[in-house]
Amino acid sequence: xxxxxxxxRSSWVFPALAVLLFLVVTVTGYSFTLSxxxxxxxxxxxxxxxxxxxxxxxxxEVIAERIGEPFGTLLLxxxxxxxxxxxITTIMLGDKPAPELARDTVFAVVMIxxxxxxxxxxxxxxxxxxxxxFQVSGANVYLSVLIAxxxxxxxxxxxxxxxxxxxxxxLQLGFVDLVTIVLYGVFLYTQTVLHKxxxxxxxxxxxxxxxxxxxxxxxxxxxLLLISLLAVxxxxxxxxxxxxxxxxxxxxxxxxxxxLVALLILMPEGVSAITAARKNDLQKSINLALGSSLATIxxxxxxxxxxxxxxxxxxxxxxxxxxxxxLFLTFLLSMLTFGTGRTNVLFGLVHMVVFAVYxxxxxxx
Length: 365
Known about the structure:
Layout: H1 10-28, H2 38-67, H3 71-92, H4 101-129, E1 132-133, H5 136-155, H6 170-194, H7 215-250, H8 255-278, H9 282-311, H10 321-337, E2 342-343, H11 345-363
Antiparallel strand pairs: 1-2
Helix pairs in contact: 1-2, 1-7, 2-3, 2-7, 2-8, 3-7, 3-8, 3-9, 4-8, 4-9, 4-10, 4-11, 5-6, 5-9, 5-10, 6-9, 8-9, 10-11
């Protein structure tokens, strides 16, 4: 979907279908199982859900073009984070306890974004333009906050003494949630007020500027964005049942659910990042990619932590040794990749190899 030109039909058809599907399922009391022809329902649900997520991102982009950067990228990131929190919380509340889902999803997002998506964007940009530039100062801000948040939420729980790892005590989790929100809030203030120039690379002539959208189109996009987000939240429960059924059928490991949720929520944002790299706007790709990782940890972990406190469920956060090594390697490579302000094909390929290792280890740990 493009944010330019007339509004595509899919941007309002899929949200309408999602709301309609939810109403039909609710009224009929349909109970999903793969053994009773549920495969067709699962396919229909996934198609509508993916389409609705893309529609939400499209409307976010329409609004983003009006408000400009970096606020536009921030809006897109927040919309995707709302979808992520809804899916994670709903699956955790499903028939099968999934205390590790938030950890697996957050880790999957970091791996997909910092290795798969960043690697692909850098690789594509390198093939097309040999080298691409970006703001080193902005990348350093992203990485410093991301490394701190990832360590506090995914590594530190393994080494606490109040409770045996990999979980925080209630008091510890509340404190970490608080400092996570504060740190992310200060990052947003830095990105949108103090140092906006860190996150906007110098554009080529003829590019940039805020889009002058008709008021009616902007208002319609705002309404449809809210409907799209609501529709995804409403269908999250049925999606959780499909995830459980598919995982049981193929004998997938527990981390599979987190990987699937991460792929669903990151796909439209990933398409936007890759498109930006193809247009020689690697700065926007970095804003989308690293911004997604930051929002996932800075907003999702506190939200899920609050939800688990309310529903009195445990929240497993600490990574195992294998995943910790991959996380450390990812941050080390990221510091090297974003350390010079210029990228090339080899940087992208190395990141994609690390992502391939992560994906392989999910199924063959």
